[in-house]
Amino acid sequence: MQGLRATLEEERDSLRGQLVELGHGAKGLDYDPNFADSSQVTAERGENEALVNKLVEGLRDVEHALEKVGTDTYGVCEDCSRPIAAARLEAKPEARLCIDCAAAANNRR
């Protein structure tokens, strides 16, 4: 369990660092309001915002998992309440769902 906590903490720190590098702060992305808004800048901004949104979502998942580590809820599927396989947690320590429930959720999308 301690190894998974360390992995989650490293991932949290990495995600936070990436967000800072992209200019994401407490108020979201920080753009220079005086910068000309060409179509290329607009496209790059859209790509940057999509990446930031994905990183923020990942950070939320990691922080959620860290809150659960050390409790009897870590490693338990949030849908079916069965244990999440150790191999899945090693590959994705922030996993909220067992592989079966994750596959079902992806099929519903």
Helix content: 55-70%
Rg result: 17 Å
Shape descriptor:
flat
Largest sheet: 2 strands, antiparallel
The residue ranges in which pLDDT falls below 50 over 5 or more consecutive positions are none
Number of domains as seen in the coordinates: 2
Given helix and strand content, the structural type is mainly alpha
Calculate the terminal CA-CA distance, rounded to whole Å.
32 Å
> Please, how many helices?
4
Pattern of helices and strands: HEEHHH
What proportion strand? under 5%
Mean pLDDT: 87
Q: What's the number of extended β-strand segments?
A: 2
Strand order of the largest sheet: 1-2
Summarize the structure.
This protein is 61% helix and 4% strand.
Account of the 3D structure:
The chain is mainly α. It has 2 domains: 71 residues; 35 residues, no CATH class. It is 61% helix and 4% strand. The chain is built from 4 helices and 2 strands. It has a two-stranded antiparallel ribbon. Helix 1 packs antiparallel against helix 2. The protein is flat. 10% of the residues are buried.
Features:
single chain; 109 residues; mainly alpha; 2 domains; 4 helices; 61% helix
Task: Lay out the secondary structure.
Blueprint: H1 2-21, E1 24-25, E2 28-29, H2 39-68, H3 86-91, H4 99-108
Antiparallel strand pairs: 1-2
Helix pairs in contact: 1-2
